[in-house]
Every structure is written in C-alpha cells, then in structure tokens.
Design brief:
alpha/beta, Alpha-Beta Plaits, six-stranded mixed β-sheet, four-stranded antiparallel β-sheet
Length: about 325
C-alpha cells in the first residue's frame, strides 16, 4: 500500500488492550526506530519495555498492580516508533486525530513537545491515575450494539454507581466509566438488553468521568515546566472538532481525562472534509475498526498491520 494523493489522517490510539508480545519474527523486534526510542526512554524511566513485551515473563503481583500504567507507556512508545517508521517511508499526514491519551504521542509527533516530554507526561499522568484507582476503584466497559438512548437509560437505571459515557465511538458503540461495582452491573444489564457485546476494559480508574476533575491541579503541576511549541501538524480537538490551538494544549491536557471522547464526531468531520486515508499509528487496530464501523467505505489501516504485511513503502 502506498500513500494516497488524497488527504491523510494519522490516528493515535489511547491504550493497548493487552500486553504487546514482540517475540519470534515480529516485524518490530529489533526495529531501529523502536530501539532508539527505548534507549532514550531508559534514561528517564525505570519501565523496561523489552521485559514487559516478553511472553515468557511471569506476571507477579507487582506487575498486575501496574499493568494499566505499563500498557499506557507501551502505547506511547509503540505509537512513536510507528510514527517515525511511517514518516521515514514517505507518509505525510495532513492532520492528527487522537483518542483519549493518544494525545500525548500526537503532541510529540507534531513537535509541540519532544519525545522525552511526551514520555514524562504519559508516565506522570499514568501514575496519578494508578493512585486514583487504588484510592477510588473504578472501571470501564465497552458496549456494542445498543443505541445512545439505551446507554443513557442504563446510566439512569444504575444511578447510584455514578456511571458516565466516557467514549462516543460510534452510533452503536460506547464506553461507560464509573464505580467498579457499577461497571459489572452495567455489563450484565447491557447484555440482558440485547447488546452485541459488553466487556470490561483493563482500567482500574473511571477514566473520562467527572470524578477525575479533581486531578486537574496535579496535572497542571506536571505540565508546569513543559513549554508548548508550535504544532507542525494540526491535531483535531475532539471536543470542539477544530484544530487544537497551541495556547489550548495545557488546559486540554488538564481536563481531558475528566471529559468524554467524541471520536465519532472527529471521524465524521474528517470524512466531510475529504480525508481519504486513516492510518492508526499504533500496534493494534482498535481505531481502525471504529472508523470502518462509522463508514464502511473508509480506507482505514493500522500501522501494525501495514508493517506486518510489508505495506510501508517509499514514494
């Protein structure tokens, strides 16, 4: 597959669904872009990506506790590695779209911040979320096959568990966020109401719910020494569905984890503006599938799939 002559959107995913396994003949094993980033990352974080992505490693209790944080850091590292691979092989995006905490890699790719600053923000906010999950256990659930009205009704019916819609991923695909017990009840209720699927996501925190507004000041502290540079590639703000302005970035980051993600609006806006290719800048194909559900005719691919199929070619 080659870059098209139409407009191209690079889409940055929020978090891996499971631990990446880069063993055997995996196309990223030993990749020079990834190895260089891991070398740079080792100077500021104790997280060992090679150990985490080794299938034979035993999962001890400490790893289970930090699992979501490690997934988040891994997501950032893999997104950046795929971005540099894509750029090196001739892909020139016209815009970036980000889903949830994919904003950190999108900002680094746009050169609003550098790689190390993006890693610092990813890990810093990740640790805040880890601590919040320990103090106030929460969770998230993906529900497919029910319309918005039915999802809203589930939230009302389980009013005592502070459930909120965290992600608007499509007309029949939503993510709920809230108290841990409430998430379990919401899954059961959704399935009883004929949802195609309802499953718990690997989060111990009620991400993208108003309960996380309390972390805003601590996030501002993390960002205090970061200087935002002009964005080389525009990033679509998933609240306003307009390009994120340089002066908005820190405020966006401080509020983003406590507000819902309107992914479906982003994709619909880009389709209206004539974007013809959507490349998910990550190892999985989560956003790729969401885009195809929103528009079956959309040309959407994940960088991981392109790499595995040797689709990363020069112009």
């Amino acid at each position: 597959m080659t870059p098209s002559k139409g407009k191209i959107a690079f889409c940055f995913p929020g978090q891996l669904q499971d631990r990446p396994i880069l063993e055997g003949n995996h196309p990223l094993k030993g990749d020079p872009h990834l190895e260089e980033l891991l070398k740079r990352a080792s100077r500021q974080t104790q997280f060992n990506f090679h150990n985490f992505s080794f299938e034979g490693e035993k999962k001890n209790e400490e790893e289970k506790k930090d699992f979501s944080l490690k997934l988040q850091i891994s997501t950032y590292l893999l997104s950046m590695a795929h971005f540099y691979r894509l750029r090196a092989t001739g892909w020139v995006p016209d815009i970036f779209a980000e889903h949830s905490m994919g904003i950190y890699a999108a900002l680094a790719a746009s050169e609003a911040i550098d790689f190390e600053e993006g890693l610092f923000i990813t890990e810093g906010i990740g640790r805040l979320l880890k601590k919040e999950g320990e103090l106030h256990p929460g969770g998230m659930a993906s529900i497919i096959g029910l319309p918005l009205e039915e999802i809203q009704k589930i939230c009302r019916d389980l009013n005592g568990f502070h459930l909120f819609i965290a992600n608007y991923n499509g007309s029949m695909h939503f993510v709920l966020s809230g108290e841990e017990e409430g998430i379990g009840k919401a899954i059961s209720l959704a399935l009883s109401r004929k949802a195609i699927s309802a499953s718990k996501l690997p989060f111990r925190t009620a991400l993208h719910s108003p309960s996380l507004y309390a972390l805003r000041e601590k996030i501002i502290e993390i960002l205090q020494e970061i200087k935002i540079q002009p964005l080389k590639v525009p990033i679509l703000n998933h609240w306003t569905i307009k390009p994120l302005r340089r002066e908005e970035v820190k405020d966006f980051l401080s509020r983003e984890i406590g507000r819902p993600v309107y992914w479906v609006r982003c994709v619909e806006k880009l389709l209206q503006e004539g974007f013809t290719q959507f490349i998910e800048v990550g190892q999985e194909a989560i956003l790729t599938k969401l885009i195809r559900w929103i528009d079956r005719e959309a040309e959407a691919f994940s960088a991981g799939d392109l790499l595995a199929n040797k689709g990363l070619v020069s112009r």
